[in-house]
Design brief:
Layout (H helix, E strand, L loop, with lengths): L3 H9 L5 E5 L18 E6 L2 E6 L5 E5 L21 H10 L4 H6 L3 E7 L4 E11 L5 E8 L5 E4 L17 E4 L2 H9 L5 E3 L22 H5 L1 H4 L5 E4 L4 H14 L4 E3 L9 H8 L3
Parallel strand pairs: 9-10, 9-11, 11-12
Antiparallel strand pairs: 1-2, 2-3, 3-4, 5-6, 6-7, 7-8
Length: 278
């Protein structure tokens, strides 16, 4: 039987910081049938730790989610790349403004995945993350009809870093769809951060050995350090501003520039949809 600690590592390795609820592995099966599905286990994820406490049996504990540098290993069996489902492709073309060729170039896949936030299985688009051995080590899945995510594996690197050229400016955005939006506009040297933006800037000295939340920046240093100009194009909101600051601190502010999206747009995909490729 999997321990609660191992269960928490597997369940929350790729999750964003926040509060979660689920059934308690320690007591739920021993409760009366009508109470077995009660989500009595309260969980808090605050990278790199997850802590839990059951409001029924008082089971509690905590575990570290951190993974060692260069440990982007395959922890699941990646699906064979198949033709993307028509409904998923229609969503990307009609709702996101992408061409089928851009979708194919991004190796975007589709599949039905259980989304814990929604409590049901949904058709999703999948964005594969590639490690140094050219293997898919994680897939981020986004529900087609809802703004909800899940993952296979744990995305811990820039999405698209394997395609970056060091003789061109690099654009860093906040999501995989933003990378594809830039590629749709023939801006090819673009990557996305793996797990969104922090709520606020964390002040203090940055130590690469302890900087787990932004380990993907240090992992890519052998590539990014050779690039003369880095354009940061994250979301136009508070967390986006915090992310821009955190990225620039680590990459070096002297070579970082911030993209100013149009007033009516929050990100690259918004700009593509409202203003076109130009």
């Amino acid at each position: 039987m999997t321990s609660i600690s191992e269960s928490m590592k597997l369940r929350f390795m790729g999750s964003s910081d926040g509060q979660y609820r689920q059934t308690c592995p320690a007591c739920s099966m021993s409760r009366k049938p009508h109470n077995q599905q009660e989500k009595c286990l309260s969980i808090r994820v605050e990278w790199p730790t997850v802590k839990w406490m059951c409001h029924h049996c008082a089971e509690s504990g905590g575990v570290s989610l951190e993974i060692k540098k260069h440990e982007n290993v395959v922890r699941f069996t990646p699906p064979a790349q198949k033709e993307i489902a028509p409904e998923a492709l229609t969503y990307l073309v009609e709702k996101r403004g992408l061409s089928p060729s851009t979708v194919a170039a991004g190796k975007v896949m589709s599949g039905h995945k259980y989304i814990s936030k929604l409590g049901k299985e949904m058709l999703c688009t999948g964005f594969p993350y590639i490690n140094d051995e050219d293997q898919v080590y994680a897939i981020k899945w986004r529900a087609v009809k809802e703004k909800a995510w899940t993952q296979d594996g744990a995305a811990k690197s820039f999405w698209g870093i394997e395609h970056v050229r060091t003789d061109e400016p690099l654009v860093i955005v906040e999501g995989e769809l933003d990378v594809l939006s830039l590629k749709e506009a023939n801006i090819r040297n673009a990557v996305s951060v793996p797990n969104g933006a922090p709520i606020k800037v964390k002040h203090g000295t940055v130590s690469p050995s302890e900087d787990r939340k932004f380990s993907f920046v240090w992992e890519a240093d052998d590539v990014v350090s050779k690039i003369e100009r880095v354009l940061i194009g994250v979301d136009r909101d508070g967390p986006g501003a915090a992310l821009a600051e955190e990225l620039a601190r680590r990459i070096g502010k002297i070579k970082c520039y911030q993209i100013d999206w149009p007033e009516d747009c929050k990100d690259a995909n918004d700009t593509l949809l409202k203003h076109g490729k130009a």
